[in-house]
Specification:
Helix 7 (206-214) crosses helix 8 (223-229), helix 10 packs across helix 12 and helix 11 runs antiparallel to helix 15. The protein has helices at residues 28-39, 57-70, 94-100, 127-138, 159-170, 190-194, 206-214, 223-229, 234-242, 245-257, 264-272, 279-301, 314-321, 325-347, 352-372, and strands at 46-50, 107-110, 114-115, 120-121, 147-152, 176-182, 197-200. It is of the alpha/beta class. It starts with 27 loop residues before the first helix and ends with a helix. The protein has 15 helices and 7 strands.
Length: 373
């Protein structure tokens, strides 16, 4: 399975998958909470692992799974071992090798499946995938030990799948732990949330982010700026690094700094990069960075300016174009408008270069209105 040529929903090209990552940085509090529950024999049957994308939720879930599957069954008290002090499982442990290969009989991974007809990953986790749990639980646990189900991510379950998992949460099998990974838990059924104990994963500080990225082979020249732009997310930082996100954000701030006399030739050049090889990913990251820029403009005018400048000249630009609450409202309104425009543009397959050009002109126009006021 480790050599499976089919794409995985949560794999970043060129980066170890969360199940292959044995070290987790920056989530000591969440790890300690789970370990404490285990050692006090208060292990809940279902855990909702939440937090922003890319902060280590899946890595934590796999660490917990390896830990539980490698624990000996609870036996006679006279043979009891000392309570574990870490979730670490040795790299050469059989459970570690089997989970990396997706060959561990005590583990079930519920995620989006491959659609042979469309030759693409399905957009949701279907109930057909959830029904396979019946066969999983129909087998005896290996060695009479624990079983673990990882749902990655629970946000991608459709309503039928959600109802099937809810029934499982209401009548959990013995010696089984469910780990539900969720980026936006508010989108889950309230009844699912209420039957889980929450483990919250925090965004990473610049030092932790740099340390986490070093495990993937990345070395950062400006960790503070990247941590700010990635909002403490390792996954987002990797994506931005591979797509030259800091340089792209510098272009966007330079263009905005020229408003209300934006450099049209430079804007057209940027729009022109939205076609061709790699254009889909470049468009996605550009839209995300534009949303970040609008948010930072709105926060500055509202009296909550960012404490870290991502690019040179950004701080002066933010204060010039968003000097007070009225300006903050204009930028907040534009952020919502551009977000809706981006969603519509994707839905109708609008020319991406035209979409970026239109957004740039809208920023220029908003800046003109603010500076005239």
């Amino acid at each position: 399975m480790a050599d499976d040529p089919l794409p995985e929903p949560d794999r970043i090209v060129g980066v170890p998958h969360p199940r292959e990552t044995l070290t987790l940085i920056g989530q000591a509090e969440a790890e300690a909470a789970f370990l404490d529950a285990f050692n006090r024999d208060k292990l809940h049957h279902a855990w909702l692992i939440t937090g922003p994308r890319g902060v280590g939720k899946a890595t934590l879930a796999w660490r917990i799974a390896r830990f539980l599957l490698s624990q000996p069954p609870k036996g006679d008290a006279m043979f009891a071992t000392e309570p574990p002090t870490t979730l670490d499982t040795p790299a050469d442990h059989p459970v570690t090798r089997r989970t990396i290969a997706l060959a561990e009989p005590g583990l079930f991974l519920l995620r989006r499946a491959w659609d042979d007809k469309k030759k693409a990953l399905k957009t949701v986790i279907t109930v057909d995938e959830a029904r396979k749990l019946k066969d999983f639980f129909g087998l005896s646990a290996p060695g009479g030990g624990h079983r673990v189900v990882i749902i990655d991510s629970a946000d991608e379950m459709n309503i039928n799948t959600s109802n099937a998992i809810l029934k499982l949460l209401e009548e959990p099998p013995a010696n089984c732990t469910l780990l539900l990974i969720s980026h936006t838990p508010s989108r889950l059924l309230p009844t699912i949330r209420s039957r889980c104990r929450t483990l919250r994963c925090a965004t990473l500080a610049p030092g932790d982010l740099a340390a986490a990225l070093s495990l993937t082979g990345e070395t950062l020249q400006t960790p503070d700026a990247l941590a700010e732009l990635a909002d403490g997310s390792v996954g987002e930082a990797l994506r931005l690094t591979h797509l030259d996100g800091l340089k792209l954000y510098q272009t966007l701030t330079d263009l905005t700094d020229g408003a209300p006399n934006m450099d049209r030739a430079r804007l057209l050049a940027l729009a022109g990069t939205m076609v061709g090889r790699g254009a889909v990913e470049r468009l996605d990251v550009t839209l995300r960075l534009l949303n970040t820029l609008m948010s930072r403009l709105a926060r500055t005018g509202a009296g909550l300016p960012p404490t870290v400048a991502i690019t040179r000249g950004e701080t002066a630009m933010l204060h010039r174009l968003s000097p007070g609450p009225w300006a903050a409202r204009q930028w907040a309104d534009l952020q919502q408008t551009l977000s809706a425009r981006a969603a519509h543009g994707r839905a109708v397959n609008l020319d991406p270069s035209a979409l970026i050009l239109d957004m740039g002109l809208s920023i220029n126009q908003t800046a003109a209105q603010i500076l005239r006021a």
